[in-house]
Write a structure and sequence with these properties.
CATH architecture of the largest domain: 2-Layer Sandwich
Protein name: Biotin--protein ligase
Structural class: alpha+beta
InterPro entries: aa-tRNA-synth_II/BPL/LPL, Biotin_CoA_COase_ligase, BPL_C, BPL_LPL_catalytic
GO molecular function: biotin--[biotin carboxyl-carrier protein] ligase activity
CATH class of the largest domain: Alpha Beta
Keywords: Ligase
Strand content: 25-35%
Largest sheet: 12 strands, mixed
Oligomer: single chain
Family: Belongs to the biotin--protein ligase family.
CATH topology of the largest domain: BirA Bifunctional Protein, domain 2
Length: 712
C-alpha cells in the first residue's frame, strides 16, 4: 500500500475534532506496467486507479469504466487515422480531464494594442482629415454611428495630466475595438474650438474640477448634435440630475449593484468618488435612468444614464472609478486590495457594457499575425550540436514535418516568409534575434540546468506553444532539452467557447521532459503537474527578499494569489514511446499583465507598499528560466526519494490546509482536506470513514464553493 502523506498540523486538528476516529489508509492499486502494442498501433492506457470516494455506487463505477472504454476506442481510431504507428499516446485517466485548459496554457484575455496615438493638435480640422484619410487608405473598419468619425476624446480639465490620460486611454484600448477608433486628449484650450464637436463620437470627462459655464455649453452642444458623453467621477451633469457630496464615501471601496442591459444585475466593489447623484423633481423624468446604486442603507445612486435632444445625444455619468486599476489608486488596506482585484474582471464587463450602450464596438480586434520562430540556445556548444543533428533530420528544403506544425529551418529572416498555423519558419541564425519582450541574456543568466530548457524555439505570436515541439521531441538527444516560448498565443479558449488572445506580460511556455517508465516519477505521472505548479511558485519565492510574496499552489494544477485569485495554470500531455514517457508541460502565468485580473508584479507592488521594501518587478524571461531550473531539481529529488522528498515543500505553499469540502454533491458528507497520496490525488478525511483519495477524473474541484462535485 502506498504511504498516505498528511500534514502534521492537519492531523492534530483532526485529532481534536474527532479523537475517537481511527484514520485508515485507503488502498490504491499500483500502476499496471504499460507496454505498447507494436502491431496494432492502438492506444495504451494507464492502469492508474485510486480508491473510490465513500458512497460511490457500483453503477457509477460501471459508468466510468464504460466512458474509459469509449475514450480508448476513439483515441485508438485517432492514432490509426494519423498513421502514428511508431509511438503511442497514453491518456492518463488520473489527470486528463483536470488538465484540459482548452488548447492554451492558461485562460487569458485579448491583447490591446499599445499604439502611440498623437495628441490632438490645435488645427483640429486638418489633423482629423489626415487621420481619416489614413484610416481609409489602410482599409480600417469605420464605425460611424450618428454620422460621426470614430474619434474618442478624453477631457481631463485644465491640467496637462499626461499620466491620467495614459491611464484612461489604456483601459479604453483594452475594451474597445482599437482598429475602429482613435483616442486623443482634448486639452482645455481646445474645448472652445468648434471643430472637435463635429469630428468626435465620444467625449470622456474624467476630472473632478468644476466645469466652466463656457465648457458646459460646448459639451451640451456636442450632445445636441448626437454626441455621447461618459463621465468618470466628474462634476458634469445636466437636466434631471444633480450631484451631492458625501465626504464619508470619498476614496472608499464600496459594493455596487449595476443593472445590465438584459435586466440582470451584477455586484462588484469599486472605489467611489465621494459624490452621489440625486434626481431633481421635474415633470419629465423619463430621460433619467439609474444604472447603479451603492449596496448601502441609503442605496445611493452612483451611475446614471441621461438622454438629450432629438439627435440621439446621451450621457452615462459615474461617480465610481471604473477607469482606474489597482496601480492607479492609493489603496490603504489589504481588504480593499483583495475586493478590488476580485472585482476587476467585472469592472471590465460593466465598462464594456456602458461603451456598447453608447454605440461603440467592443468586439475582438483582428487576431495578430503569426511571426517566425527563432532557434535560440543558452549554450553555444549545444546550439551547434543541435544544428549538426538537424542536418540529418530535415529534408532538402530544411523541412521537419509534423501532423500539428511543420517547421522549416532557414538561416535568416526573409521578407516574404510565410507563417501559417501548419507551417512555421525557424530562423537558425541567433545574431539577428532581438525582442522587446524577451531577453536571451536574462534567460541564460537564470537557467541553471543540466539538460532542461537548453534549446529554445521563441516566437512573438504563435497559435499555441504546445504544438511547436511535437515534430522534434521524439528523436532529439535528451541532453538538448527543448522549450517553446511565446509572447502571445492566438488559440487560447475562454469560457463558453470564446476565443481569447494571451496578453503581453504573461509567461507562456511549453517544456519537453523525458521520464523513464520504470522510475519513481514514471510510475506516478500525475505528480508532474504538482511539481510544475510548485516550481512556478518557488521561482519567485526562492529569490532573496521575495520569500513572503503570497503566491501559492492550488491542487491539482493552478497557481494562485493567496486562496483568492488564479494567476496561472499547467497543462500536461504524455506519450509513451517504448519505455520512456515524453512529457509536454505547458505552463502560463501572469507576470506583468495587471488587467483584467492580477499578476505577480501586482503582488510585489502590494508587498513593497505594506512592508516599505523596494523589491523590483520581475519579467517573464527570468521566471520561465527559474521555473525550469527549479523543476529539474524537484524531478531529481522525486526520482531519488519519491513523493516524500517534495511533499513538505508542496504543502508549504498549497492553499488547502484544513479546508472543508462536501463529497459527491452539495448535500453530501463533510470531509477535511488532509493532503495528497502517493500518486498525487487529493486526500480527504470523512468523519467515521478515515482517509480516502478523490479521483480528479470524476470530480471538479471548486475551491470557491468548498465543494468537490462529481462531473456528469
Amino acid at each position: 500500500l502506498p504511504a498516505v502523506h498528511l500534514q502534521e498540523s492537519t492531523l492534530k486538528e483532526l485529532a481534536q475534532v474527532a479523537p475517537s476516529i481511527k484514520e485508515q489508509s485507503v488502498s490504491s492499486t499500483q500502476m499496471d506496467e504499460v507496454t505498447p502494442d507494436a502491431t496494432t498501433g492502438t492506444t495504451a492506457r494507464s492502469g492508474l486507479r485510486v480508491a473510490e470516494s465513500a458512497g460511490q455506487g457500483e453503477e457509477e463505477k460501471s459508468k466510468l469504466e464504460k466512458e474509459s472504454e469509449h475514450e480508448d476506442e476513439s483515441s485508438s481510431l485517432s492514432d490509426k487515422e494519423t498513421g502514428s504507428g511508431e509511438h503511442y499516446h497514453l491518456h492518463l485517466s488520473s489527470c486528463r480531464e483536470c488538465l484540459q485548459l482548452e488548447n492554451s496554457t492558461i485562460e487569458s484575455v485579448r491583447f490591446a494594442s499599445a499604439e502611440n496615438i498623437p495628441e490632438l493638435s490645435d488645427d483640429c480640422n486638418s489633423k482629423l482629415e489626415e487621420m481619416n484619410d489614413d484610416c481609409l487608405a489602410r482599409g480600417i473598419k469605420r464605425v460611424n454611428l450618428a454620422g460621426k468619425p470614430p474619434n474618442v476624446l478624453i477631457y481631463l480639465g485644465s491640467e496637462t495630466a499626461k499620466v491620467e490620460f495614459e491611464q484612461v486611454k489604456s483601459i479604453l484600448q483594452e475594451c474597445i475595438d482599437t482598429d475602429s477608433y482613435t483616442i486623443y486628449q482634448l486639452h482645455e484650450e481646445q474645448v472652445l474650438k468648434a471643430p472637435w464637436i463635429d469630428n468626435s463620437l465620444l467625449l470622456i470627462i474624467a476630472t473632478e474640477e468644476p466645469i466652466s459655464e463656457e465648457n458646459h455649453k460646448q459639451f451640451m452642444k456636442f450632445l445636441s448634435k448626437g454626441g455621447k458623453i461618459l463621465g468618470f467621477s466628474s462634476s458634469f451633469t445636466f437636466d434631471g440630475i444633480q450631484i451631492k457630496r458625501k465626504n464619508k464615501l470619498k476614496r472608499t471601496v464600496h459594493e455596487l449593484v449595476v443593472s445590465k442591459m438584459d435586466n440582470t444585475e451584477i455586484k462588484l466593489n469599486l472605489l467611489v468618488s465621494g459624490c452621489i447623484f440625486e434626481e431633481v423633481m421635474k415633470e419629465d423624468t423619463s430621460k433619467v435612468k439609474t444604472l447603479s446604486r451603492l449596496n448601502n442603507a441609503d442605496k445611493d445612486i452612483v451611475i446614471v444614464h441621461l438622454t438629450y435632444g432629438d439627435s440621439g445625444g446621451e450621457a452615462i455619468l459615474s461617480q465610481a472609478h471604473l477607469e482606474l486599476d489597482i496601480n492607479s489608486m492609493d489603496v490603504q488596506t489589504e481588504e480593499d486590495f483583495n475586493l478590488l482585484k476580485i472585482s476587476n474582471t467585472k469592472r471590465y464587463e460593466v465598462l464594456k457594457e456602458i461603451l456598447i450602450s453608447l454605440g461603440l464596438s467592443c468586439e475582438l480586434s483582428e487576431i495578430p499575425m503569426l511571426t517566425p520562430v527563432y532557434l535560440l540556445s543558452s549554450d553555444e556548444e549545444i546550439h551547434l550540436a543541435f544544428l549538426k543533428w538537424l542536418e540529418g533530420n530535415v529534408d532538402t528544403e530544411g523541412l521537419r514535418a509534423s501532423s500539428k506544425v511543420s517547421l522549416k529551418f532557414v538561416s535568416s529572416c526573409e521578407s516574404k516568409m510565410e507563417v501559417t498555423p501548419s507551417l512555421m519558419p525557424v530562423i537558425t541564425e541567433m545574431g539577428s534575434f532581438s525582442s522587446e519582450h524577451f531577453s536571451l541574456k536574462t534567460y541564460q543568466q537564470n537557467l541553471q540546468t543540466k539538460k532542461l530548457g537548453k534549446i529554445l524555439l521563441f516566437t512573438e505570436v504563435t497559435t499555441t506553444t504546445m504544438d511547436l515541439l511535437d515534430g522534434l521531441m521524439f528523436e532529439l538527444p535528451e541532453e538538448m532539452g527543448l522549450i517553446a516560448i511565446a509572447v502571445r498565443q492566438t488559440q487560447g479558449k475562454g469560457r463558453g467557447g470564446n476565443v481569447w488572445l494571451s496578453p503581453v506580460g504573461c509567461a507562456l511556455s511549453t517544456l519537453h521532459i523525458a521520464v523513464p517508465l520504470h522510475s519513481n516519477l514514471g510510475q506516478r505521472i500525475p505528480f508532474i503537474q504538482h511539481l510544475v505548479s510548485l516550481a512556478v511558485v518557488e521561482s519567485v519565492r526562492s529569490i532573496p527578499g521575495y520569500e513572503d510574496i503570497d503566491l501559492r499552489v492550488k491542487w491539482p494544477n493552478d497557481i494562485y494569489y493567496s486562496d483568492l485569485m488564479k494567476l496561472g495554470g499547467v497543462l500536461v500531455t504524455s506519450t509513451l514511446l517504448e519505455k520512456t514517457f515524453h512529457i509536454l508541460i505547458g505552463f502560463g502565468f501572469n507576470v506583468s499583465n495587471s488587467n483584467p485580473t492580477i499578476c505577480i508584479n501586482d503582488l510585489i507592488a502590494k508587498f513593497n507598499k505594506e512592508e516599505g521594501t523596494k523589491l523590483k518587478p520581475l519579467t517573464a524571461d527570468c521566471l520561465i528560466a527559474r521555473t525550469v531550473t527549479v523543476l529539474e531539481r524537484l524531478i531529481d529529488i522525486f526520482q531519488e526519494k519519491g513523493p516524500n522528498g517534495v511533499l513538505p515543500r508542496y504543502y508549504k505553499y498549497w492553499i488547502h490546509s484544513g479546508k472543508q469540502v462536501r463529497l459527491h454533491n452539495e448535500e453530501g458528507p463533510i470531509a477535511w482536506i488532509v493532503g495528497i497520496d502517493d500518486y498525487g490525488f487529493l486526500q480527504v478525511h470523512e468523519e467515521g470513514k478515515g482517509v480516502e483519495s478523490v479521483h480528479p477524473d470524476g470530480n471538479s474541484f471548486d475551491m470557491l464553493r468548498n465543494l468537490i462535485v462529481p462531473k456528469h
